[in-house]
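Hi R.,

As promised, here are both runs. First protein below:
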Amino acid sequence: MPAPEPTPPRSSLPEAAAHFGAYVLADAAARARDITAATGGPPGAPVLPAPSADVPAPSAGLERVLRGPTGLGTAGLRLTLPEEPPAPAPAQGTPIPGLYHHPVPEPDPVRVEEVSRRIKSWALDEVSLYPDDWEEEFDGFSVGRYMVGCHPDAPTVDHLMIATRLMVAENAVDDCYCEDHGGSPIGLGERLLLAHTALDPLHTTREYQPEWAKSLHSDAPRRAYRSAMEYFAQTASASQTDRFRHDMARLHMGYLAEAAWAQQDHVPEVWEYLAMRQFNNFRPCPTITDTVGGYELPADLHAQPAMQKVIALAGNATTIVNDLYSYTKELDAPGRHLNLPVVIAEREGLSDRDAYLKSVEVHNDLMHDFETEAAALAADCPVPSVQRFLRGVAAWVDGNHHWHQTNTYRYSLPDFW
């Protein structure tokens, strides 16, 4: 007889929303009704309440309030599909057949150029991130296109640089400690722990503090972490900063699980692999979408189980996108790289093609769950910062796919169709 399912915990979202004051929600509801009447919205359709102090009041166009930011690259900021599909990206790269995704316009080229210029200057001049023979690979990563596409509501290039430095630093840790450039599972725990102190400072005695501070400059990953975190903390609140540290600890724990399997030459069960991928994934990137957007999702709303589920699903779906687009790249690399198609093929006895196609289905299920949960949360918690944060996470999901699809320097698709 199967064990009974545990009773789902009761959501405290209404209480969390009420924390901001019943008058805020009452006023938002009244304004939402006015907006619906003014724009002729369908009866019963969810509407975005009027902004509170953390979101600037609209100066023109009620439609913008309902839809979120507009302009180049902002199509992904809608939780529901627009009536008119967004303009497709230029014909660069091929989307995976059958993969559920939303096309987005090409990121703003002016911002891309400026972010690309600044991030390369930071990498070379401020943190000495890589030697000369890595320059082509750094340029081919196209991190400027990546971050501009994932954060279309960033108010300034300075805000975009917050995310871009952190993305580059995280990749330096992955490459240098775990994978491509001298990485190894052996001793990874020590390296990650010491690098994490660049994000979460060590508080020790006066005798030993200088040695720790000196260690933060000892290798490229720690230099990058330290610098990127300093820039982030200058803009982020204390709560946002601690939130990011927490998600980076999750990421590092996922790295360690994968490293343990590599040392044991072990292929996990599919569900075990997906559990690892919920930690070793992109989660730290969309979780800072409010900081990059120039506002804050309050801590008690970010911590709600429903919000955590939405963020987790977004991270899981976007990480499987990486598994799928990097599949041939990893097959060509030395050693065995675990990704979802490889694990499904091994554990479920499927051909490489069938395992890959099943992985596409897993991604699509995660994407549908993400959109369902995000829409439900938006309806249950009509607080402006929640609405905007959910739009920002959706934009990150769409921008992440667009970058993977169009980055033909790094990725190509297998011949399975």
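And here is the second one, sequence first, then its structure tokens:
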Amino acid sequence: MPKIVMIISAATSLQLADGSTHPTGYWAEEVAASHQVLKAAGAEVDIATPAGVRPTVDALSLSEQGGVSEADAAEFRAYLAGIEEQLATPLALSEVAAGDYDAIYIPGGHAPMADLAGDADLGRLLNEADERGTTVAALCHGVAGMLSATKENGDFTFAGRALTSFTDEEERQGGLGENTPFFVETRLREKGAVARTGAAWSNTVVVDGNLITGQNPQSSTSTAEAVLKALTN
């Protein structure tokens, strides 16, 4: 039975480019759908957050305003209610060791841009995991969390690696637009990653060795399935 740690942002707000504050949290589908696929396959899934703080769901991810149908929102709410105990008592990220898990999985929502992108504990964990060849998976804005990983010389740990993320086009079409604190795709390219993006809102997953990334919420299920495939090969 594979053991996976899902690292969820604990941020509830994000400072935008114009200095204003935007409420945020994790994206419901990315946590619910991913967790469901992994658990259904028999994986043991732990949840961890910075300082063990209970994560908050982004209200937009459960509303038609966020592009989510009422039926889908009801399904996500029901699943999240079923893992309420886990969400209420997450592990502290600082106490997570890469050697205890077969995979690391980082879902998104804009929240990771606020905390995970610069989290030293996550950076340590990602470096340890990559050195061990452990599967590292991230989804949508969760890929911003990978920016926390740097080498001793300051270079981005995943420079030269192929990956995808929520794209600049998607951010402009249905995200925060030009008021985003930074564009995840652009930042990753600037750090030396090889960004491979699909059409906006397409189900796109990129696999490069032990690194698995999904582009957007539409890629949630496929990203989790790719992780399971990697762990069974």
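A quick note on the second one: The first helix runs from residue 28 to 40. Let me know what you think.

Best,
J.
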